[in-house]
Amino acid sequence: MTLHSDLAKLLAGAGILDVDIDDAVADEHVRSSAYQRVVSATASSRSRDRDRAMVATILRDPIEIVSKTAVVALVDRIAMKVTGPAEFRQWSAELLPEIDQLKVEENREFIRRRIHDWLFYLSIEDGHVPTPAELAKVTDWMQRLLAEESTSPAVLAVLAESGSRKKTRNIAKNRAGSRNLRTK
Questions:
Q1: pLDDT of 104-157, one tens digit each?
Q2: CA 83 to CA 85: how far, in whole Å?
Q3: What's the rounded Cα separation, in Å, for the pair 90 and 18?
Q4: Rounded to whole angstroms, how far apart are CA atoms 81 and 131?
Q5: Residues 160, 143: Cα–Cα separation, whole Å
Q6: Lesser CB count within 10 Å: N end or C end of the chain?
Q7: Main-chain phi, psi angles of 45, to 5 degrees
């Protein structure tokens, strides 16, 4: 398939008809924006049946950072939509063979780490309180997200004590002292 036909298929499948495909082929910024719109439409669908094919198509883009960015956006959106870690684990496992097609190892590893981070987040949302060793295995980004969003005093206590960055530890400490937390 060509980039032109891939884009046409993705956009039509998402019901996006106002993107000039020739412009998107010629300009990676236009293409990146189009991918973000496709990801948004795909993530809002109840069906996950087409996700792997969509990811495979996006990953054929000649500029790998453009495709990586779109796939990360999809991972983020689906993680926030699933019912729990088991559903996300199953969904992400179906994408891993496609992600392994990326040429640059750092891009493959970034997406794998993002998936790992979300699995960790979802397990915490499901009631798991991480150990400091488990916390050390997630990215600084995820630790900060948890410090900013977790409502669990136990999770915030672990972050306040064992977060990898001073700012993360401080956010968790300040939020742990807040009376506005609801108990999970």
A1: 999 999 999 999 999 999 999 999 999 999 999 999 999 999 999 999 999 999
A2: 7
A3: 34
A4: 25
A5: 10
A6: N
A7: -70, 150
